[in-house]
Design a protein that fits this description.
Elements lengths: L7 E10 L2 E10 L2 E7 L2 E8 L4 H11 L9 E8 L8 E9 L7 H4 L3 E3 L11 H5 L14 H13 L2 H6 L3 E7 L4 E7 L2 H14 L8 E5 L5 H9 L4 E4 L5 H10 L2 E7 L2 E6 L10
Parallel strand pairs: 3-6, 4-7, 10-11, 11-12
Antiparallel strand pairs: 1-2, 3-4, 5-6, 8-9, 8-10, 12-13
Helix pairs in contact: 1-6, 6-7, 7-8
Length: 279
């Protein structure tokens, strides 16, 4: 898989190896700020890995509860930041929404800085996240546990930038037969999820009622919230979920799986969807 432009940076480093030190070139996962602007108003600055920025912006708008449907977006395009068109070209996404869909002033005042390590940094409270309209995902979706065990290897094989840098998270969608639909990488795990959901939104694939969302890191609260916003019934992660993620998954009827490694996984919520009789 070819690497996206600007997704990696090449740098000179010194490597210490069993008492020997030498200079070598190393790849770093790129991290740059992306400003999302709705109309004339800045909405958010997100630290992300460049690439699939339109999907990231679209997914962000949906999972932040600012839009619910594809047709609410009139235009979505990359632009040059006014401060320095040469340096910041491609680090601004301009969005025009249907006038009937424009977020209210209070929502726009949330203009926060979303750090790559924590998707809910800058929000006034967790209550503000949970206040969004969330709907229970497809109760009839079923998944064979043997198929579930194969998904982490498929995810890892498709991580082009991680293979070069070792520094990115990934999110991917798989159907009930284990076929991959889409994979995205980013330095922020929640950004990777927004890119996947944004792709689905722009391709008119929502809700994602018959797909598994697999994430390379832990299953945190905001990832579960984003999955529910997109209609995903099953979320799997190779690491541990948080207590709030488990609580939200149980309340909303989402299947949450953690520690998905080798021949073992832990079901924290929605165990009824994981069945030996799944087709």
């Amino acid at each position: 898989m070819a690497l996206k432009p600007r997704s990696v940076n090449l740098t000179q480093v010194f490597e210490w190896n069993d008492g020997n030190i030498g200079r070598k070139e190393d790849y770093l996962a790129a991290e740059e700020p992306l400003e999302i602007r709705v109309g004339d108003s800045p909405l958010s600055v997100i630290m992300r890995t460049p690439g699939h920025d339109l999907e990231l912006a679209a997914g962000f708008l949906l999972t932040e509860g600012l839009i619910e449907r594809r047709d609410q977006i009139i235009s979505l395009k990359e632009a040059a930041a006014e401060s320095d068109a040469n340096v910041n070209r491609g680090n601004l996404v301009a969005v025009q929404l249907d006038p009937q869909s424009m977020p209210d002033t209070e929502k726009m005042r949330r203009n926060f800085f979303a750090a790559s390590s924590c998707g809910i940094c800058g929000k006034a409270s967790i209550d503000s996240v949970r206040s969004r309209t969330l709907r229970a995902p497809n109760p009839d979706f079923r998944l064979d546990p043997e198929l579930l065990l194969r998904l982490p290897a498929l995810l890892r094989e498709s991580q082009a930038v991680f293979g070069r840098t070792g520094g990115l998270h990934a999110a991917a969608l798989f159907d009930s037969a284990g076929n991959p639909l889409i994979l995205r990488e980013d330095i922020g795990r929640h950004n990777a999820v927004d890119k996947v959901i944004g792709w689905a939104l722009l391709e008119n694939r929502l809700p994602l009622s018959d797909f598994v969302l697999l994430v390379s890191g832990r299953g945190g609260f905001e990832i579960i919230q984003k999955a529910i916003m997109a209609g995903v019934p099953v979320v799997g992660s190779v690491s541990a979920p948080s207590s709030l993620a488990v609580q939200l998954a149980r309340e909303m009827g989402l299947t949450l799986i953690g520690f998905l490694r080798e021949r073992r996984f832990v079901i924290y919520a929605g165990e009824e969807r994981v069945s030996k009789n799944s087709s």
